[in-house]
Write a structure and sequence with these properties.
CATH topology of the largest domain: Rossmann fold
CATH superfamily of the largest domain: NAD(P)-binding Rossmann-like Domain
Helix content: 40-55%
Distance between the termini: 80 Å
CATH architecture of the largest domain: 3-Layer(aba) Sandwich
Number of domains: 2
Radius of gyration: 27 Å
Oligomer: single chain
Strand order of the largest sheet: 3-2-1-4-5-7-11
CATH class of the largest domain: Alpha Beta
Largest sheet: 7 strands, parallel
Shape: elongated
Strand content: 5-15%
Length: 515
């Protein structure tokens, strides 16, 4: 078979979600590792006063593209920006643009989706389901289309314990749901949402399951494939280790733990933390499109891009490595020494959350008010708790994913493609990956310079000494007020104090003699 770069040679690629985390990495990898690709048509909408062209310019000027910029200075000419809003009818594309796409597009990568877990059902359906349906309608009219690649999630069927590489029957008929949402008001939609999503935790996983069914049904006459990544994290190797540019998913919680704000979280230490590096997902996606394009399988190919079954990594290990790495490479202006712990018991977790989060936040805000400053800590803690509640479903359970198709795909690659498009997570060393991940949040998300590391370490040592001093004073006060009322307790107290005094006296005498 032709190699992956050879397959993409001369091809025109349509890419949605290019401004998202995975979309950026896919664009960079495609242009860098398949340099003879003809063009990438990027569907981008206006946002925050920026034109689609300005948004692409901003993306391609970021550090992620430094390596590509060095190797291919003229890469920007291959990116053709198409103004489009996937939530609008006909994708908000003019007829001339649609006609151009019908004529030239060979491969579609559909990465666009709302990844907000607490999105309203109407908005989640609009972007995750209806937009996918509209894009498939356009794909059916494309004369030279070879592959339609859909990016889903491994948690689309999280209501199942074991998940095979197949498209399961949908919880509801997507077409009927879309029709109903057209006449329902927002209040009614919000009322029926819990009943519709059933035992799924949020609208995101619910609508991604519907989107997969739409791909299977509407793409029956197309050559389609679905990739399901689990929890996508920072890059493993490409274009360089530890690249991350957002607070989404686990990254925001890692930063909060590094700052000393997040100290207790609901999670099972023994549950699998199915983290998967973004470059692993991108490599597998490009390889999956290549395989479908070359072999033309009869049925839709589904790939569970996960790590738990082949290279297990548990949440308890995640917490230990976060505490270790943010102690060695601390974040600037931390509020407390990093000390994240997980609690599987809901009641204990709530108690520790109150002690470690709510009470300190209240006291800090009170101090800020008394000193004439604007309080902010309680607001931050409230937002943090909301994020924790959205993620605790995934940090407290373990799933079993079948990955036979991923293994098959890996075995189909020639030796050079296995190196260039590596997605073999058996080679992933978690301690090294987490070190780079934590470093990446410091350098690329918070934009902290490594030259400030000595000052950050000094600040962290000061916080540690303050904590030790506070704990010592607290123990003494508790002992004196509540325990030292009995004669026996007082005797123990005086014995400990005299022992400490003798030890200090001996230490002083020994030092004098040596002098």
């Amino acid at each position: 078979m032709v190699s992956i770069p050879e397959y993409y040679e001369g091809k025109n690629v349509l890419l949605t979600g290019v401004t998202g985390f995975m979309g950026k990495v896919l664009l960079e990898k495609l242009l860098r590792s398949c340099p003879k690709v003809n063009a990438v048509y990027a569907l981008v909408r206006h946002k925050a006063g920026l034109t689609p062209e300005a948004r692409i310019e901003e993306i391609t000027n970021c550090k992620l593209f430094d390596r590509l910029r060095d190797e291919q200075p003229d890469f920007r000419a291959k990116i053709i920006v198409i103004t489009s809003d996937l939530t609008q009818p006909e994708l908000d594309l003019s007829e001339p643009i649609k006609e151009k796409l019908r004529e030239c597009i060979n491969i579609i990568f559909h990465c666009a989706a709302t990844v907000r877990f607490n999105e309203t059902l109407r908005d989640a359906v609009k972007l995750n389901v209806t937009a996918t349906q509209q894009l498939l309608f356009l794909a059916q009219q494309m004369k030279n289309l070879e592959v339609f690649m859909h990016v889903s999630t491994a948690y689309a069927y999280c209501n199942r314990k074991q998940i095979e590489e197949v498209v399961y029957p949908p919880p509801v008929d997507p077409k009927k749901l879309i029709d109903c949402l057209e006449w329902m008001d927002d209040g009614l939609v919000n009322d029926i949402t819990p009943k519709l999503i059933g035992d799924r935790p949020n609208t995101y996983t619910f609508t991604k399951a519907l989107a997969e069914y739409v791909v299977q049904q509407e793409g029956a006459k197309l050559n389609t494939a679905i990739i399901r990544p689990s929890i996508v994290g920072a890059s493993w190797k490409e274009p360089f280790p530890g690249w991350i540019d957002n607070f989404n998913g686990p990254s925001g919680l890692f930063i909060a733990a590094g700052k000393g704000i997040l100290r207790t979280m609901r999670a099972s230490n023994d549950a699998l933390a199915d983290l998967v590096p973004v470059d692993v997902v991108v490599n597998a996606t490009l390889a999956a499109a290549w395989y479908s394009g070359v072999n033309r399988p009869r049925n839709v190919m589904v790939y569970n891009c996960t790590t738990g079954g082949t290279n297990p990594f548990h949440w308890g290990e995640v917490g230990d490595l976060i505490n270790l790495n943010f102690t060695l490479i601390p974040l600037e202006n931390s509020l407390m020494h990093p000390n994240l712990s997980f609690q599987s018991n809901p009641l204990l977790c709530r108690c520790w959350t109150t002690v470690n989060h709510t009470v300190p936040a209240f006291l800090l805000d009170l101090l800020l008010r008394l000193t004439g400053h604007k309080p902010w800590m309680m607001k931050t803690i409230t937002r943090l708790h909301r994020a924790m509640m959205l993620l605790e479903y995934f940090t407290s359970k373990t799933w079993i994913w079948n990955t036979e198709n991923v293994t098959m795909l890996m075995n189909q690659l020639n030796p050079q493609d296995k190196k260039t498009f590596n997605f073999d997570v058996r080679q992933l060393h978690w301690a090294e990956y987490m070190e780079n991940y934590c470093m990446g949040t410091k350098k690329y998300v918070l934009n902290e310079e490594m030259s400030g590391l000595p000052a950050a370490r000094k600040h962290l040592n000061k916080l540690r000494n303050i904590r030790y001093g506070f704990n010592t004073v607290l123990v003494i006060l508790i002992w004196r007020i509540f325990i030292a009322r009995s004669q026996m307790a007082r005797n123990i107290w005086y014995f400990v104090v005299s022992l400490c005094y003798k030890f200090l006296s001996y230490f002083r005498a020994s030092s004098t003699m040596r002098y």
